[in-house]
Amino acid sequence: MDDEPDFLRLVRELFGPLSGGRWEIHCANSADAALEMLKQQKMDLVVVDNSMPVLDGIQFLSLLGKRFPDLKKVSLTAYSTEDKRSACLAAGAELFIQKPQSGEGFKSVFAMLDDLMSWAPKQGFQGMLRRVGLQDVIQMECLGRNSSVLEVYNEHVLGRIYIEDGSIIHAAGGDLTGERALQRLLALPGGSFELVPFEPPPQKSISGSWEFLLMEASRMRDELAAQTVPGEPEVDPQTLAAPAAPSVLVVETLVCSGLGKALYDAGCADVPARVMLLKNIGRQAAQLAQIASLGTFDRLELQLADGRAIAQAKPDRLVFVAVANLSPVP
Amino acid sequence: MSDFNQQWLTRRASPPGMVACGLRGPDGKALCHTLEESCPAAKMEQILAQFEHVRSALFSEQLAPRWHTWAFEQGQIRFVQRPDGWLLGLVVRPNSDAGRRLDALSQEFLNLEL
Known about the structure:
The structure holds two protein chains of two kinds.
Chain A: H1 5-18, H2 31-40, E1 45-49, H3 57-67, E2 72-77, H4 82-90, E3 95-98, H5 103-117, E4 124-125, H6 134-143, E5 148-153, E6 158-164, E7 167-173, E8 176-177, H7 178-186, E9 190-197, H8 210-227, E10 248-257, E11 262-266, H9 271-292, E12 297-304, E13 307-314, E14 317-325
Parallel strand pairs in A: 1-2, 2-3, 4-9
Antiparallel strand pairs in A: 5-6, 5-9, 6-7, 7-8, 10-11, 10-14, 12-13, 13-14
Helix pairs in contact in A: 7-8
Chain B: H1 3-12, E1 18-24, E2 30-34, H2 41-58, E3 67-72, E4 75-81, E5 87-92, H3 97-100, H4 102-111
Antiparallel strand pairs in B: 1-2, 1-5, 3-4, 4-5
């Protein structure tokens, strides 16, 4: 729902083909028209422009929450503020997204909405969409050489994962610390997590490479999944703590061997093209390294209009991770 | 290149940890400012020139970064290109003041009246 006809036209023209025919898109230029459509036809998702005449986006979200409690709601805004974001999420929006300004932006928004549509909140982490979850965020923090603390919690466990300058240095969860705590937190079947500013941990209990630690966690989780008895009750989402509002969303992750064989892919629309890009990045990095004499190449960071991306091209691996901002770049 | 450009480069793009920086105008003329002997003006010009290869090899309408940073073991190279053709290149040491101010400086360059 948006009162700008050009924007609605673009959404229809771009999202239709991107969905490959899976989406049926209905556009409304007013709250009245949107409500009429919702009465006539069951919808899965409503995207609401925050700045509408008469009934603004926040009021409309509240109204939708009362009249259509099962409907997924997304707030879209051209002028985002922290207050507005909090108000929209409090009014029941699952996501608060800045209006896209470019083709790439539309693709990112489509990826977020598509993921939200497939999101069955039966299990998984609620800090980010389930398909790109806790591991992806850790990977992003490590690749970006960031320092942060991930607070992970569900009804059984409260844990913290400390990342300093791109290395996992400590984890604590329940009565465990170190790698065992990290593996336990990463193997949780459901819960929430929140990325908070870095603070020094009480101790440093982990020293291994993050790539190995995450691979080991994946292996253990797969083993646990294989041992799970079919039909065993899953974690009830009602008992989970309130989800943290994400500020970014991982929209693409691609990890390849040094030769370009894809090992892990989430949200990558064209793997061969991405592999080609990563190989080209490696070549360009080699030329820059030769000119600038700054030592071994580590990564390329790209600041995009609607997010950022990090690429690594090393002899043993090619990695590409892209995130989209859910709130504006400060 | 005007005095203003030179002044902006020497005053704003010189925090501790800056190795060298350079501006290239839409006419292809470059102005470089060096703060460490390891990266003389000629080398900075070569780095600016390499940007064209980087751009044509990697970027397109689908992938058009506002700026990008090449992180190496001993330093980082930041490229910022404006729609009017002006290019800023910065070489900084890792974990330095200059490194921490890269984004602010890049944004300032994008908004600058040149």
